Amino acid sequence: MGTVAAAGLGWGWFEAGWVRLRKLEVEVPGLPPELDGLRIAHLSDFHLGVPSRGVHAVERGVEWTAEQRPDLVCITGDLLTHPRGEPFLRELVQRLPLPAFAVLGNHDLAISRDPQAHASNLTDLEPARLLRDDGELIELRGQSVWVAGAYPRKIDPNSLSHTADFRILLCHYPRVFDRLEPGRFELVLAGHMHDGQITIPYPGGKLRLAHPTARYANGVYRTEAAVMHVSPGLGTTFVPFRFAARPEATELVLRST
Questions:
Q1: What does the DSSP assignment read for 188-249?
Q2: Is 249 in contact with 23 (CB distance < 8 Å)?
Q3: CA-to-CA dists, residue 159 to 81, 148, 156, 223, angstroms
Q4: Which of 27, 155, 180, 213 has the smallest set of CB atoms within 10 Å of its CB?
Q5: How confident is the model at residue 4 (pLDDT cuts 50, 70, 90)?
Q6: Among positive and negative, which fits the CA dihedral 78, 41, 145, 167?
């Protein structure tokens, strides 16, 4: 029995660093034809500052993103679990192509049951833009693109909308999707869920032990309001293991319908 447990822990430690580098085409209603093929790197949940093989996954995900040279980089929160990871976080962000945007997550503010979580109080992330209930209007392929970021607390996400050819909302929590009104944002990017991190696979699915009833756990979701991608994230929380929930850096290739 001890051998089986040791093997399981060994696999969980290995998988925590076994990063998937994925390209995913996503049809987005309302995407201007000029932005068809726009490439967005979606990274999330670094959880730096604590011992974990997830640090390797984060570094490899950043390296791959730099190699791909996407049109836009978005990071959806939980950058740090402990402030000691801030110097490495800033080093990694320096490697990312621009423009790059990020939002904070609950671990960044120590709003978590994780005993390792300590507030980091980040106020900037240069050269990336750290969004805190605000946004920035940029131009991509001759089109105006509004990138907004929700702070990890209860704000009306619809209030962050802005007139533009295309609008993207970054929020650590996927449940923000339920509060969106049609016509506010075309694309939502979120994280937080880690695809369950510790899961039990079964034919046709898997039981996510941390979030067994989560509505938005991983992948692409659609409503009449918008399209959302939930990242599996790159780091780990509570324990430095993953089971059947590999870390992932994703390049979204947007397609007009």
A1: EEE--SGGGSBEEEETTEEEESS-TT-S--SEEEE-SS-EEEE---SS-SSSS--BS---EE
A2: no
A3: 29, 10, 6, 19
A4: 213
A5: low
A6: negative
Q: What are phi and psi of 219, to 5 degrees?
A: 105, -155
Structural domains counted in the chain? 1
CA distance linking residue 30 with residue 208, whole number of Å: 33
* pLDDT at residue 62 greater than cutoff 80: yes
Query: Residue 172's domain is classified under what CATH number?
Result: 3.60.21.10
Joined together, the tokens standing for residue 216 give 């938005």
pTM of the entire predicted model: 0.95
- Round to whole Å and give the CA distance between 65 and 48: 18
Rounded to an integer, what distance in angstroms lies between the CA atom of residue 24 and that of residue 229? 10
pLDDT of residue 121: 84
Amino acid at residue number 73: V
Q: What value does the CA radius of gyration of the chain take, rounded to a whole number of Å?
A: 17
Which residue from 127, 49, 59, 41 is spatially nearest to 81, judged by alpha carbons? 49
Q: In what side-by-side order are the strands of the sheet with 100-103?
A: 20-27, 248-255, 39-43, 72-76, 100-103, 129-130
In the DSSP assignment, the letter for residue 52 is: -
Residue position matching structure tokens 């999330």: 44
Q: Which domain holds residue 29?
A: 2-255
Residue type, 158: N
**Count of C-beta atoms within a 10 Å radius of residue 232:** 25
| Separation CA 152–CA 191 (nearest Å) | 12
Residue 245 in tokens: 């929930």
What is the structure's pLDDT at 191?
97
